[in-house]
Amino acid sequence: MPKLLRADQMKKCIGCYSCMLACARTLQHDFSPRKAAIQIRSVGGLQSRLVVDICRGCTDPPCALVCNCNALTPRRGGGVRFYKDRCIGCEKCVEACIVGAIRFDEDNKQPIICIQCGTCVKYCPHEVLSMHEV
């Protein structure tokens, strides 16, 4: 069964960025949290609540619809598969993402895309993230 990433327990998040570091290391072979497909950030203010920017696993992903080179294809159960070798770096997927979960990596000239692999879940020490069967 396909699974999708969820962050249902954000109130438990302490902002350790372990999920971001694991994602960047696994997908981008980089140690910078900025290279992660998942982004934890503060909404600011005195309470400084944390929120997460992640792929919501659209069943009809707009990012894949605008991809002219078939680098993004819809994944069974939601989300997309990303074929780096097909990507031409046009950034249309970044603009098309309705939740703003796709960012562009200027170093590699390619988008940073969540592939719903669950690596971030394994490294979250407070069980904020989980994978749900679709």
Automatic annotation (TrEMBL):
The UniProt entry, under CDD domains, shows: DMSOR_beta_like
- The record places domain 4Fe-4S ferredoxin-type at 78-107, 114-134
Looking up Pfam families in the UniProt record yields: Fer4, Fer4_4
Q: Which GO terms describe its molecular function?
A: 4 iron, 4 sulfur cluster binding; metal ion binding
Alphabetized, the UniProt keywords read: 4Fe-4S, Iron, Iron-sulfur, Metal-binding
Q: Which SUPFAM superfamilies match?
A: 4Fe-4S ferredoxins (SSF54862)
Q: Which PROSITE patterns match?
A: 4FE4S_FER_1, 4FE4S_FER_2
Name of the protein in question: Electron transport protein HydN
| Superkingdom per UniProt | Bacteria
